[in-house]
Specification:
single chain, 50 residues, mainly alpha
């Protein structure tokens, strides 16, 4: 019974995706290792700053 609870707890931590939290308005640089393709309906909402 307790062995299963421990395994469930550990699996919850192992399945958690990496997350960062930053203050709103903070500038960040994002580097990707492949091209990003946005759907046409979202193309106008993407803001590229160089």
């Amino acid at each position: 019974m307790f062995g299963n609870a421990g395994q469930t707890l550990v699996n919850g931590f192992l399945n958690q995706k990496p997350t960062i939290t930053i203050d709103q308005g903070t500038r960040v640089n994002v580097f990707v290792n492949r091209d990003l393709i946005f759907p046409n309906n979202l193309a106008g909402a993407v803001k590229i700053i160089q």
